Amino acid sequence: MTKATILLVDDHPTLRQGLAQLLSLEDDLEVIAQASSGDTAISLAIKHKPNLILLDLNMKGLTGIETLISLRGAGVESKIVIFTVSDNKCDVLQAIRFNTDGYLLKDSEPEELIDKLRQALAGDFVISAPLTQILARSLRNDNKQSEPLDKLTPRELQNLKLIASGKSNKYIANKLDITESTVKVHVKNLLKKLGFKTRIEAALWAVEHKVSH
After folding, report:
1. Is 3.90.1720.10 the CATH number for 140-208?
2. CA distance 209 to 213
3. In the record, which positions carry 4-aspartylphosphate (predicted)?
4. Beta bridge partners of 54
5. Distances (CA, A) of 102 to 23, 146, 166, 194
6. Domain with CATH 1.10.10.10 in the chain
7. pTM score of the predicted model
8. CATH architecture of 4-131
């Protein structure tokens, strides 16, 4: 089995060691390097090219956001997931603005964290459940009401509910017994009908309007 490689970036050694120990229990995940600062993280990321970087937000020296910007500027293509105690709306939106692949809280349950990391590695944007309402309110367009749901076909509505639950295209395809390419078509159509540019916006709007219920 090919393991997904992970770089841990946090200025608290005890937390890093705990995470490394947790991840070492998984057959498909491997911590290949650890960094206590943004500068070190950039060097290690360029050297090791990890599949995923788990990045603290509040560090001495370069902050998580500054490190994120520098990593992307250096051409690092790893999935980058912010891992922090901050549930501040501005921090979350800023991280998304600078092309992060996820935003997870440090009080996440171990099983949830592992699951979210696997989702991020598979190409999904991941976020801790408590933050969805914060983002939904921030991204909401007051002109968008529940009526647009009437424009969706039953199949598009099914896709939207599953997207709101954080499911990947592969999962949706298996769940609905359709191909991934068909899922992509449904997602493209529902985004157009609802007036959104990304599935993240659609998912957050759906959560706020309780479409997934």
Report:
1. no
2. 9
3. 56
4. 8, 81
5. 18, 27, 12, 23
6. 140-208
7. 0.66
8. 3-Layer(aba) Sandwich (3.40)
Q: What are the pLDDT tens digits along the chain (213 aa)? A: 689 999 999 999 999 999 999 999 999 999 999 999 999 999 999 999 999 999 999 998 899 999 999 999 999 999 999 999 998 888 888 888 888 999 999 999 999 999 999 999 999 999 998 888 777 766 654 444 446 677 888 888 899 999 888 888 899 999 999 999 999 999 999 998 888 888 888 888 887 777 765
Supply φ then ψ for residue 24, to 5 degrees.
-65, -15
Specify the domain boundaries for CATH 3.40.50.2300 within the chain: 4-131
Instruction: Fill in the amino acid letter for 155.
Output: R
